[in-house]
Amino acid sequence: MRHDLGLKGALGLLTLAGCPPDDVVIITASDTDTSTSTSGEPTTEDGPPTSSTGEPEPTTTGGPEFDGVIAPTLRIYRPLDGAEIEASRDPLLDHESLTIVASGVTYPAVYAEAERRLEFADVPKAMYSLRAQQPAAPDLPDLPGRLSVTQSVARELESFGGICSGRPDIAFTGDLETTLAASVGEMLPLGPEDQFEFYSYNADALFLVFPNLDEMDATGSPQLDETEIVDWTIPWRPDSGRDAWPLVDTAEGDDFWLGHLVATPLVPAPMGAELQDPWSFAQRYVLGETAKLSLPTMTSGATTAVSGTFKAVAGETVSVDLRASEFMAELQIYDAVLKSVGCFVATVLEPGAEHPITGVAPNLGGINVYGIDAPVDPECVGMDCETMFVTPGDRVLELELGNPYSEDGTETLIVQCSRYVFVDDPDGGAYDYLASDLIVQGRLEDLTQAPIVPKIGLVRDLAVNGTPVAPDEKLDGVGENPTISFTAPKFGAPDFYTITIRTLDDVMGADGPVVRRALGSIRTEFTTVTIPDGFLEPGGQYYIQVTAERSHGLTEAHAKSHDIWLSRAMTGVLTP
């Protein structure tokens, strides 16, 4: 399963488990029960997560006898209006390298085509690390791809199989010259906060696009109040569960949609005491209209003309009882004074009905809110007013959404509240920001039945080489292999932790400067991890994010649940 927390723009853009995934996911040491859950509901026991103390017991599963570690590669694809298709692909074709390292010895992967699995022969029955090196990203060709490390004692890895939305024989591109030229008529007048989203279920592609409202823009972007799109040229950079840029092919039955996410203020004209309430300045988004696009088969490196006509989407309204104060309280544990926070509540269409499957999830509607510097005296007007920082409070929200897409999906609610810490750009440019998050995700029909509160807390006592490093602090001289330690959250029961290493050093990508780039991650059950070689280098500036996660995909107990609970804590800036 892939979880980048790659939430983009005003709404949450959620990409589920990749086929193949960005990050390797395994059955970890506690995941020894391979029986199928029949309830379809997550387990709720609050037992403690695996401790970093003591030697873990190796897991064994059923299946062919093999002296080593295996990873099945069979995938089941669900195309539009077609039967399921089984396919197996050699994961070595999608990685620079895939190896297991145990006790200083490296064990290479071999693809056993007849058995439809990867084999790592002779790996001892003890703790090991699976190292998955991604190829360079097409927009950063001169930099190494992401490195994912997974610690385990499991004898069978559930890393490369699964159920995927769309067809199996998608063509991909890494060519930066691949573009769309979109012309779409009968559009609602464009508002200043509106966004657009290209979506194809069958090609497993999703691309959120912001109009350029500069009248001198040369791309053909629509401008304020315009009611059509005319030859808008857009570089094709979609998200996908396939870990590549898919090319849409209508000759193969691919659908292709352009959604118009229409933005309006939650409170049209705040007055009086409303000026002290962050919700008075919140933005509401709804999928107001979509266009079914016509186009020839997309070709790598070429511009494809797409056209269509917008049609209104029938909307509905649901009530969401968000206890934002409880999210804010947990976000404060590393800093008593919150300086910048925000929440979004978004509905997406997750592929798969009876259980989640791999694929992208188009936005249906949502609401954004941020903390504000509010006047102490609501009657005061002007720059000289005394202000106070106010975080979003509890609120029952009337959430609007529109869903014109397939019925073979699940309307899913995502609630994410984040805390931002702004730091100086080490290259002297614009500010970078770090973030910690609390996320609750589940079926819309379930989460609207009760107040929404955080389900899993931030890890506690986060330290680097034994030294706490608050998000707004800096620690020099940590070395290239620092030890990251923490204790379990005070509530919630994580299935695993992901330690993500990010750099603040800017690089130039195809679309301009790239900041806060993730170098890779380490996935583990343990609460003490030493950063291995391949991540930190002398002279670099980094920070570490520790995600505690309870979700589907790691155990059969959770495999049929749409529920995902996440928390993400962060260190301050580190230098080796």
Mean pLDDT: 84
Could you say which overall geometry the principal axes of the C-alpha atoms support?
A: globular
Measured distance between first and last alpha carbons: 31 Å
What is the CA-atom radius of gyration, in angstroms? 24 Å
List low-pLDDT spans. 1-18, 20-63, 553-557
Overview of the molecule:
This protein is mainly beta. The chain has a 17-stranded mixed beta sheet that branches. A four-stranded antiparallel beta sheet has the order 32-31-34-39, with no helix packed on it. The longest helix is centred in the middle third of the chain and has 8 residues, at 324-331. The radius of gyration is 24 Å and the shape is globular. Mean pLDDT is 84; it is low at 1-18, 20-63 and 553-557.
Short synopsis of the structure:
By secondary structure, this protein is mainly β.
SSE arrangement:
Blueprint: E1 14-15, E2 68-72, E3 74-78, E4 85-88, E5 97-102, E6 105-108, E7 110-112, E8 117-121, E9 128-133, E10 147-152, E11 162-165, E12 171-173, E13 179-185, E14 195-200, E15 205-209, E16 229-235, E17 245-247, E18 257-265, E19 283-292, E20 303-309, E21 311-312, E22 315-322, H1 324-331, E23 341-351, E24 360-361, E25 363-370, E26 372-375, E27 387-390, E28 395-402, E29 409-423, E30 432-443, H2 444-447, E31 460-464, E32 467-468, E33 474-475, E34 483-487, E35 496-503, E36 507-509, E37 512-514, E38 517-524, E39 528-530, E40 542-550, E41 564-570, E42 573-574
